[in-house]
Amino acid sequence: MAVETDVLDELRRLRTRVPGLTGSLAATVDGLVLAHDVPETEPEGLAALTAAALGVAYRMTDAAARGDFRELLVRGAHGYVATYAAGTTAVLTLLAEDRVNVGRLHLEGRRGGARIADLVATRVGPGTGRHADRPTPTPTQVPGPAQTPTPRPAPASAAAAAPPSPSPSPPAPAPEEHLATAPPATARPIGTLPVRTPQRPTHPPRPQTGS
Questions:
Q1: Quick one: average pLDDT of 76-104?
Q2: What's this model's pTM, rounded to 2 decimal places?
């Protein structure tokens, strides 16, 4: 691919700019090799170890509240392994001898990471995943059964006992909800009570004689 050729050219230029640089590799953050210039090292294994080290570095910077990952430097008895961020999807790993100028290594490593990030963004582009163009569903697109309840008529006995109301009322809810929220008969507004009064007379009625 063209992006691999351009990244490989950048890796080779890094070797000429940094004395003591013995190898370089560009890979994705999940361990896939983009291009490499590591004559004495297995590139796939180095990319996999870089991805594992990145996972620890990301968690360390997050736990210490140091912001986004920028670079990681490891020193061994025979030299350095330096990893630099190349955008958000790729990393640059450099192998150097122990006598390398660390300041020059950091300077060129950061510049190389920025250039590789531009190459990857230009040739590959952000948002190229298979789910990038999928719209985000909203709760109102597919209403569930609970969002559109079907009004049910009240029981026949309740309908016979309750006289019609003069004002319009909203649709009747489900039977369970209607029984739970129905007000008692004494709470009805004036004008809807039965004509017969429920009070008893205090004195017995007198017999009436016919005329």
A1: 95
A2: 0.57
